[in-house]
Each structure stands twice: as C-alpha cells, then as structure tokens.
Amino acid sequence: MSVAINNSEKRIQTLKAIIEQLHNGAPPHTVKQQLAEIVNEATAGEIGAMEQELIARGMKVEEIMAMCDLHHEVVIDILARSDRELPAGHPADTMRRENAALTLLIKSIRGVMAEISSSRLLQAEAVNKLKGTLNELMDLEKHYQRKENLFFTRLETHGIDGPSKVMWAKDDEVRGKLKAFVSAVNENAGNALALAKACTEQGEIALKAIEEMIAKENNILIPMCLDTFTEEDWAIIYRDSPQYGWCLTEPGRDYKPITTEQMPPTAEVPAAAGIDLETGILKLEELKAIFTGLPVDLTFVDAEDTVRFFSEGPDRVFPRSKAIIGRKVQHCHPPKSVNVVEQILGDFRAGRQSKAEFWINFRGKFVYIRYFALRDPAGKYLGCLEVTQDATALRALTGERRLLHYS
What we know:
Shape: globular
Largest sheet: 5 strands, antiparallel
Structural class: alpha+beta
Radius of gyration: 28 Å
Number of strands: 7
Order of helices and strands: HHHHHHHHHHHEEHEEHEEEH
C-alpha cells in the first residue's frame, strides 16, 4: 500500500487532479487505474467524504459530476457491495427492494422495445404495453423523492452534503432522460420507424441512466448511510417515508424502529426561540412576515363563527379592518348573502362538507375565493379558513417559464 494512496490528503489531491484531467478532455481509461487505486483503499463513506471535501474546497458540483459515471464504473468492479442483512421494512432494505423491482421492470421494458424495434409494422399491443410499463416506471419519482428529502436530509445532519448534491444532480439528469423518452414514445406512437428509433436512442439512454443510479445507490449511498446513520436516523426516515409513497413494491413488516421514548432527548427549545409548529419552529416576527408575504388573503373564523384573524398583505382583494376581530362572521356580510354563509358553516360543522369555492369578476380582477373546514386530528371542528386570491395573472399564464425572470 503506497503512502500516497493511504493518505487522505493525497487521495483528495489525486481525485481533484483526475477531475481536472477529465474536465480538460482526457479519455476516461487514462485515469481509471488511478481512481481504482483510490477506491480500492477507501470505504463508501470515505469516498463520500472525499467528494464532500472537494466541494468544501470550492470545486463545483458540475465538475465532480464529470467524474461520477467513471467513478461508478470503477466502484462497481472494486467496492464490495454492502449486503448487510437488514429486517424487511428497514428503510435501506426497502430502497434495495425497490431497486430490484426497477431492475426487473427495466428488463421487461427492454423486451418490449426489442419487439418494437425488430418489427417494421406498428404493433398496437406492443405500443400499449410499452406505454403501460413506462407508466409503472414513473413510480421512480417516489423513490427519488424519499432519497432526496429523507436520506439526504439525515446525511446533512451528520455534516455530509457533498455526495448528496452530486447524486441529486444526477437524479435530475435521469428525470430529464426519462421524460424525453416518454415524450418521444407519445409523439411517435403511430409511426413504427420513428418509435423504433426512439426506443434504441432515447429509450436505451434513459434505462441505462436509471441502472447506473441503482448501482450508485446500492454500492455507495446505502453503505454510506448504514455506516453513518443512528437508529434514530432510521426511525425518522421510517416515520416520514409513507408521505412520499413506494416504488413498485411495498416495504416489509419485520423492521421495528425505536420509539420516541427510546430516542435520545433533544435539547429543549427556549420559549424565546419561537413557536413550535411540529413541522418547524418560527419566531413571531417570521410568522407575521409569512402571513404578510403570502400571495393570498386569509381570514380565520373559529368554531363559534367569530372572526379571530386575518392576514395583512400589501394588495388585499377585499379590505379588512381590525374592528372585525371578535365579531360574528354573519355580521360581516350583507343580509342577502348571510344564508350562504350559514349553509357553508353548517355543512362544515356537521362534517357534510370540507370545502366550498367561488370565482367572481371584481373591479377588473378575476377573484378566486375558497373556504376550508379546519379540524383537529380527532375530527373536531375548529373553524373555517377563507382564502381569497387575485387569480387574474395566473389565469392568463400559458406555456412555461423555466428561466429566472423578475417581473
């Protein structure tokens, strides 16, 4: 084992040099052996730490991405895959199972693509099957959302954000390639030759990109997380995963995360620090600023039909005065509309409805007005939230704006 390869600083410098060589057009095979030596001496966690250090030293994520696929080629051959036994339902086990399901689906898609490419005639059954399997493949988004919002978040709590930045950028590349393939299939579904070309070009590019990400997750991300995360980290990921859903397969039921009582105590948040809203803590001035900055007007009426709050934005659709606070909402409407107010509140209170909406033309504006019933977790009625919005500009939007432009 050479001193250079055994030394973390030397490995980082070598990685930086490799990336610079690739960035300057060096053929990948000319640096593959250098990278292989580094990978052979490093764990998945150390490889991630090296990426982290490179970013901390000012190297752009895009430059590290230039090495990412070559890195994967070497890692797949050298780095021992972590097949650490895990109970079914453990978040890492679920990721692996989803990757296995994705691998099988990709094999099926390739079979359909081959059938389409080998035939000069348009096979309606094959086209429908391709569309159906691609629709299943779109489940990939759930997998990526969980990874990006839960796994990456927990890595960041341990001071590791470099590898996740690189992988997230690669995720977006995969999304773009898959979207291009799906669009090509839909656009050319009636043209046998064009569809066959889309399969051999955009299709293979997209499927290969997904497979490469599967390998990176299995061989780098998951081992890194297993080496880094505490039982509390895994319990948090397990708790929050259902809101993103599952990709192609359901998680097992054997994993038993630690309970809240078993988690290490967290430092108490001083009252002066802010208001604990469960999904975050906000200072009072921050909360006020949020309500003021919202592009909608809010009014809250409690369970006794008393106005308790309204937001104060710079461009309210309907003016409000603080004099209405504490007033019965029925008294804030003209007599001709009180019966509608009573019906909405009555239906909300009885649980018959949870939303009512109207849209009107008002002084040259298209105004969208919605009422929402608010209830506690047990279903008890807490009141009604009115949301009013000037939707004139929204209604006029067409096409897309993907580049930054300040109005």
